[in-house]
Structures are given as structure tokens and as C-alpha cells.
């Protein structure tokens, strides 16, 4: 790929993911020296399953330099944010304590919707910390922070906790099915909307969404939830 075109990819990736151009260029200079590394940024083979999970085309990452730069920059942003997430002070015990009163309803609805209740708990914790009366600045409502338009489309009253859970869990389950079990894309769509995921061909480069997805995945993967 010509140097000018690669520079444009670097600038775009830097703007999308908030990683300095100098950092990307440094990785490019050093990454290609690693045996078996992929693309200009020297992506380790082990990252390919994660990239696929987050909506990247593995073949393009392998063969297209620009796609390799974008994927490599996303990895830098992801790992930086994961370090922040892992350093948070919330504990598994706290999440369990907050979730416990709601677990019978979460488990029952999740079974109906065929979705892992642990993912539901992770989303609720991130969205509202299990506060049924929570209302965001964008007017998202309740435990699962349903937008009024989304609640109307689901036929639920978002201010009723039981209906909020029912609508939110089914909405999340439907997103999981729409994205063929790709948790990263489903979470991105839950946060930013399916239109944004479609428009960007993956997790949108919105700072909120870029933070949201790894945070929810962290809660999902690291916490064992009670079943009763």
C-alpha cells in the first residue's frame, strides 16, 4: 500500500479510537519485526478470534494493510480501556448483592428469551447499578435503561421494573440472535443502536460505546452469579 494511503488509515484510526498517531506509527515500526505477526502493526495470531468477535473481517485484517492498521489500533484502545476496567473497585460480592433480589425474575425471563442471565446481570449493572427508578440524561429509563421509543416498540412500560426487565431482556436476546451470538456487536447495538453498528460495520467509534462493551464483557466474564 502506498505510504500516503497508509498515512490516511493511521489518521482515521487515530481519530476513531483516540490513540495518538505517534503511538500507532511506533507499533508499525516495531510490530513487523515479530515472527508470524499480521499486518503493518504486527498483530499476534491470538488476537484474531477476538477481532472476529468484535466484528472485524479476519481475512481483511490478514490481507489488507488499512484493515490491519484499524484492527491494531482498536486492540491498543481496547487493552488500554480494559486496564481501567480491571482496576475498578467494584467487587463480585457487590454485584451479587445488588442482583440477588432481581435474580428470580432475571432467570425466568432469560430462560424464556434463551439468553445467558449472567449477560443480563452484567448489562443491568453497567446500565443502572440495579436502580429501578434510574433515568439517564438521555431519558433512558429503569433497570435496563430502555429508551422510550424502544420501550414502545416492545410494548412495555419502562417505569414498571418487571416490564422493564421483560422488554430489556428480550431486546438484548433479539440482538444476540441478530448478530449470531456475537456478544460484542450485540452490546454495541444495545448501547448505540443497531443502525450505528450497521453504519460502521462493527462496534462504532463512539467513546461511550468503546468503553461500554469491554466494561460489560468484564462483568460478564469475571462474576459468578447466583441462580436463585
Automatic annotation (TrEMBL):
Its EC number is 4.2.2.-. PANTHER family: MEMBRANE-BOUND LYTIC MUREIN TRANSGLYCOSYLASE C, SOLUBLE LYTIC MUREIN TRANSGLYCOSYLASE-RELATED. The gene is mltF. This is Membrane-bound lytic murein transglycosylase F. It comes from the Bacteria. GO terms for cellular component: membrane. GO terms for biological process: peptidoglycan metabolic process. GO terms for molecular function: peptidoglycan lytic transglycosylase activity. Signal peptide: none annotated. It is an enzyme of class 4 (lyase). It comes from Ralstonia thomasii.
Amino acid at each position: 500500500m502506498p505510504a500516503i494511503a497508509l498515512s490516511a488509515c493511521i489518521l482515521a484510526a487515530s481519530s476513531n479510537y483516540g490513540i495518538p498517531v505517534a503511538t500507532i506509527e511506533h507499533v508499525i515500526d516495531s510490530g513487523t519485526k515479530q515472527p508470524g505477526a499480521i499486518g503493518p502493526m504486527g498483530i499476534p495470531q491470538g488476537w484474531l478470534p477476538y477481532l472476529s468477535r468484535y466484528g472485524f473481517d479476519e481475512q481483511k485484517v490478514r490481507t489488507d494493510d488499512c484493515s490491519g492498521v484499524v484492527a491494531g489500533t482498536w486492540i491498543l484502545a481496547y487493552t488500554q480501556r480494559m486496564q481501567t476496567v480491571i482496576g475498578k473497585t467494584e467487587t463480585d460480592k457487590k454485584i451479587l448483592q445488588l442482583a440477588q433480589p432481581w435474580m428470580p425474575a432475571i432467570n425466568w425471563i432469560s430462560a424464556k428469551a434463551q439468553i445467558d442471565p449472567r449477560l443480563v446481570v452484567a448489562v443491568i449493572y453497567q446500565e443502572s447499578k440495579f436502580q429501578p427508578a434510574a433515568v439517564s440524561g438521555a431519558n433512558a429509563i429503569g433497570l435496563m435503561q430502555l429508551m422510550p421509543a424502544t420501550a414502545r416498540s416492545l410494548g412495555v412500560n419502562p417505569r414498571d421494573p418487571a416490564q422493564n426487565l421483560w422488554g430489556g431482556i428480550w431486546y438484548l436476546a433479539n440482538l444476540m440472535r441478530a448478530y449470531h451470538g456475537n456478544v460484542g456487536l450485540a452490546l454495541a447495538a444495545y448501547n448505540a443502536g443497531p443502525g450505528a453498528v450497521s453504519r460502521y460495520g462493527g462496534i462504532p467509534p463512539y467513546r461511550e460505546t468503546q468503553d461500554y462493551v469491554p466494561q460489560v464483557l468484564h462483568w460478564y466474564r469475571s462474576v459468578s452469579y447466583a441462580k436463585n
